[in-house]
Structures are given as C-alpha cells and as structure tokens.
Amino acid sequence: MARGMITNLTTPAFMVDREGTLIFFNEAAGCILGIQYEETGPMPAEEWGTRFEPTDLDGTVVPVDELPLAIAVREGRAAHRPLRILSALGDTHDIEVTAFPIIGRAGQSAAVAIFWD
Fold first, then answer.
1. CA end-to-end span of the chain
2. Edge-to-edge, what's the strand order for the sheet holding 92-103?
3. Which of 4, 42, 71, 91 has the most CB atoms around it within 10 Å of its CB?
4. CATH code for the domain defined by 2-116
5. For the chain, which residues make up each domain, given as ranges?
6. What is d(CA 92, CA 29) in angstroms, rounded to the nearest whole number?
7. Measuring CA to CA, which residue among 82, 117, 108 is closest to residue 15?
8. Which of 17, 21, 27 is nearest to 104 (CA)?
9. Which pTM does this prediction carry?
C-alpha cells in the first residue's frame, strides 16, 4: 500500500522494510539520486546508507545508523536531519530528510523517508 502511495507522489520518497533493506524509491527521488529504482533494485542499509555518501552540511560523514531512516526502523519513531548527498551522476544535493515508521494491518512494519532538495 505504501509503495503505491509513494509511486504517485511528486515529493521524493524512499522506503525500507523492517530490516532496513531498500525496497523502493519513487521517480522524484531517482531524479535527485541520479538513478532510478529499476536500475538498483533492493539494497541493504549498508549499501544505500553509504552509496550516496551522506554527510552533514559541514561535510562530516553521517554513519548509517544515524540516518533518519535507520532511526525510524530501529527506534520506531520519526526522525529528521539535513544532509548533503552525492548523486550517482556526481552532483551534490543539500536535502532535508524526514523519516517515519509505518505499520500495516498485518503488523508488517517498514519506514518511509521523504526529502526535499
């Protein structure tokens, strides 16, 4: 259900499962990331959390476990942080990321991040 929702958003959105594995990001996110989901497929947190080289705006590397999506999965709460990322095309983007957990009717959990460039 959440995948269908973020597919139709023009706001960049990124979704992970309860283990933190990337399971989808929408076209708007792909424009900022410089790659589309169809080109990447699922990715473990260790890969998506470093692939785009997230740093604070001062250039300090942000560990994977301190990224908003990791916090949303691990702690089951919303998290927000400004970040600088490097796209697959080599462009840097200063983004604001807000991530939050989602829980389906069957008790399945995941987390979604939305971000702005």
1. 25
2. 22-25, 13-17, 109-116, 92-103, 79-86
3. 71
4. 3.30.450.20
5. 2-116
6. 14
7. 108
8. 17
9. 0.89
